[in-house]
């Protein structure tokens, strides 16, 4: 009798398994899925000098001709809107007996920012707007010399360091640590 019960119960379990398996197969389906493609934007800037060609600057003590305009041109060659910042590095260099040495201490130069759409913050100049793809903008200063005493024959070297970052997702705040373009809301 126990054999008949076990046998009946086994047949019952096998039947239930076949019915559920067939039903599950009936309700499942598959479909081909196309590849998901992402196109990433690019950030690419060109910086070029927009000032007078390298030339002798011949300032004279006490005269108004002791200033020169220095300007750079920035072009967004990428596909994304960007924020820009630039840092100006400058130093006087004396050449004595074919040895170059930097002049340390007090500087005798004054830098006046002419470009109104730029703002200085912690040694960097930030373009306050968004730079669209293919857009060109300028950063312009007037540089003047207070006195030429001690600087005759010296070179005044000017370098620019420029960076661009995407104008979306608060990238400037998180990467550059500046709130010039706003602070993310929580």
For the largest beta-sheet, the strand count, sense and barrel status come to: 5 strands, antiparallel
Number of strands: 9
Q: Rg, please?
A: 35 Å
Name of the CATH first level: Mainly Beta
Name the average pLDDT.
Answer: 80
Low-confidence stretches: none
- Assign a percent range to the helix content: 10-25%
User: Which structural category fits the helices and strands?
Assistant: alpha+beta
The outline comes out as rod-shaped
Oligomer: single chain
Which sequence of SSEs, written as H and E, runs from N to C? Answer: HEEEEEEEEEH
CA(first)-CA(last) distance: 73 Å
Keywords: Signal
Signal peptide: 1-27
Description:
The structure is a single chain. With 186 residues, this protein is α+β, with helices and mostly antiparallel strands. It has one domain: Immunoglobulin-like (Sandwich), CATH 2.60.40. 17% of the residues lie in helices and 37% in strands. The chain has two helices and nine strands; from the N terminus they run H-E-E-E-E-E-E-E-E-E-H. Strands 3, 4, 6, 7 and 9 form a five-stranded antiparallel beta sheet that branches. Strands 1-2-8-5 form a four-stranded antiparallel beta sheet, with no helix packed on it. Strand 6 and strand 7 form a beta hairpin. The termini are far apart. Keywords: Signal.
